[in-house]
Amino acid sequence: MPADYNGTWEMESNENFEGYMVALGIDFATRKIAGHLKQTKEIIQDGDNFKTKTLSTFRNYELNYTVGVEFEERT
What we know:
single chain; alpha+beta; Lipocalin; four-stranded antiparallel β-sheet; 2 helices; 21% helix; 33% strand; elongated
């Protein structure tokens, strides 16, 4: 059984995120907004099955997956 990741996780920092966004060609205004966002991640784990909820000021989304099984994520 994998490690237990159940719980709610708060982002503490995002080092080098600005440089990453520059490399992706993201415009200045969007980079400034994104750099100030803090996300909360809720993880619900049942064995190898995971349900993750990502919560932020501008966008919330949910992803369900099973370890070892290919899946698609919309970004």
